[in-house]
Amino acid sequence: MTSALTLGVLVAGTATSAAPSAQVIWSSEKDPGSGSWFGGPQSIPYALSQQANIALTSPTTTAATTLAVDPTVQYQTMLGIGTSMEESTVFNLSRMSLAKRTEVLKKLVDPSTGAGINLLRITFGASDFTGRQFYTYDDRPAGQTDPNLTYFSIQKDIDYNIVSTIKQVLALNPNLKIFASPWSPPAWMKDNGSLIGGKLLSQYIPNLAVYYRKAIQAYQAQGIPIYALTVQNEPLYTAPDYPSASVDPAQEKQLILALKNELNANGLSTRIWAYDHNFDSAWSYVPTILDDATSNAAVDGVAFHDYAGDPSIMTQVRNSYPNKNIYLTERTVWGTSGADRMAQYFRNWAAGYNAWVTMLDSNIQPEKWTGTPGPTMLIQSASTYDTYWALPEYYLIAQYSKYVKPGAKRISSSYGSASTVTNVSFLNPDNTIVSVVINQTASSQRFKLSSEGWELLATLPAKTVGTYTWLRESSGTAPNLLANPGLEADGTLSGWNAEWHSGELAHKVDTDYPYTGNYKLTHYAPTAYQQITGQSLNVANGAYRASVWVRSSGGQRALRLYAKNHGSAEVTAEIGSGVVSGWTKYTINNIQVSNGFIEVGVYSDALAQNWAAFDQFELVKQ
Q1: Which pLDDT band holds residue 114 (cuts at 50, 70, 90)?
Q2: Is residue 155 domain-shared with residue 72, that is, in the same domain?
Q3: Domain at 537, CATH number
């Protein structure tokens, strides 16, 4: 953290000195995605603009959108957030003076003075964003093959300044991780004999695995470690006019197995990421690879692009294969809606995000794409090469990359809504909480961040992203004794061992507008029902407090939070038959346990099609 935080000492949840203070940074959108940005720089309302720190206070009754942040509920570990160093960007950087090029790279990767980008995507061979003729590392004249890879060389990457630029980036940020993606195998490995389109010939899968291994080794010899490799960029798309290749799921499975053997035999630790394509086609591709135990074991993670489908597919894949990391490896987004899209990636288990294409020039060059690209986060003047300007997207990605550190855990937080503010939150290894709040609306929005007994009350301007960071202190509060209190154990009722119903089973875990995290408990049936969902556990004798957050359609004959079987009469918090439109906390205080046992849960006695939703149950010793 670059600014000091005022720290307090907590005893039993009460500050005995100054409360924690949050650092506040704002960045705004301006004409998101507009081609007008290629015409020159424009003023931006907020651009990583530091605001006055905000002191956290005890909870207030002030009306505001409430975002609950719970660092005790943790999800994926973040690998990094970054962009690409494809040849278009390198081409433009190479036209700059050394001093100006260094300035640009520091602006991107320096963790103190820049955006702190720490995950970089490079291409093995040419992509559609290049100023050069398309190439791979083993191109042969038409009709010739090279199965022994005698002519393999990364010399073009050296000649085109790709290697030297990446080495300079690593010198500026040695902790940066690099992963690579190929757009096409050499043409002689494909059925059409061309880098453009065509399908990988299965007979060359062993040769292609050696080709990738040699590329990793060649980069390593240049002092550039390749952290991971996606074995084919967009394997389900064959482009009509730039390098691409069809690689079907069975072929990718064989390729992954062959590559893993090559890596193991040569002492290489590069990780393999499968798929590397859009959300909508994942289920037609990924199971072929990950349902097989051997190829599953060879894969570190699954990579996604966001050009079709919904980010929730990442959660579905992660839930089906919980031992695999999830990455969003390609998608440029613009404005506050783009910042919110990033939040959705992370809320759906992405451990990394990479923008695609970092710097084109004011003539939208160089590129060999099928359409007209949108504006990049940096744009270079096509006439004065040392002149460049940063777009809002540079600052908006920095709202994440500068503050969410590698090794951070995404933590439970309310998502909010697009009509007010949205959110995603993290806990850094240094114990700082980072909460990114996004206001996509046309007016300022008042909100609260509520965390571990503290509250941060703030107002965020229209079309602005705010990053709020504070040092987490030990709250001194008693631990929650319930298992799976937020239903986040892979979206199951694990731990909820006290169940009863009359008629139709009427409880389930679902993902429809949870209070925090990804899941909640719902009571509902199309016919009249009675349903108990509870948890029985052994506890020490003494006084306890139970609570739960609730929403309800109303109309129940009875709806309550209960505690029973604790050595005296059942006690309840009556939710009643009225509509509970917003998440509301119901609490039972001073539950006296005298027999070392307690059952806590919720009870519905409802008419047909009445529903109630529950989240973040709690049982603590008072």
Answers
A1: very high
A2: no
A3: 2.60.120.260
